[in-house]
Amino acid sequence: SQQGEEDPQALSIQEGENATMNCSYKTSINNLQWYRQNSGRGLVHLILIRSNEREKHSGRLRVTLDTSKKSSSLLITASRAADTASYFCATVLPYGNNRLAFGKGNQVVVIP
Amino acid sequence: KAGVTQTPRYLIKTRGQQVTLSCSPISGHRSVSWYQQTPGQGLQFLFEYFSETQRNKGNFPGRFSGRQFSNSRSEMNVSTLELGDSALYLCASSPTQRNTEAFFGQGTRLTVV
Questions:
Q1: pLDDT digits over A37-51, tens only?
Q2: A-proximal residues of B, 33-72, CB under 8 Å
Q3: CA–CA distance, B55 with B97 (Å, rounded to integer)
Q4: Residue of A6, A41, A51, A98 to mutate for B, most B C-beta atoms under 10 A
């Protein structure tokens, strides 16, 4: 079964606006990661947040993690047309491996 | 540094045939994982290899197999292809054997007719 599960919403926003996506999961994790995918191509790693961290920033990205609610959010600030993509969260269980359990993804369209 | 390279990029096969996909990880990376992506099931984990040993296997039938060579390059094989095997197959490499980010290749688009 899927571990990470994003809110299954397609998001359409204007360039310059912020985009927020949510992800929930079911079991304990070692870390949670966000990836971006453009048009059925390979995934690009965006950010990794460990289970003992609550918030992390990388450029225009801000990720939060609430382990008590088993949820995470990804915020993209000041969106650009190039941010148009599918975004996936993925969890890693605390068993010491690299196996990623992906959610179903969020399609984000940024309108210029 | 060269990224993860997957070959071929596109493949069309007939039901019942078998197929081998190849993945060259980033130099120095010893962990290689494979994922299947379909519109219906999303991204699903197939298996992970580290130092030529399979460390994890997803919930796929025995028709799906893989291996890793001493230079960390990996192959996956699907025998007796079914229409439902049509998918984007993604390979990812990681620098260590645990809890790190994954670097993905561009994938192999397999179509079974």
A1: 998 789 999 999 999
A2: 33, 35, 37, 42-45, 48, 55-56, 58
A3: 9
A4: A98
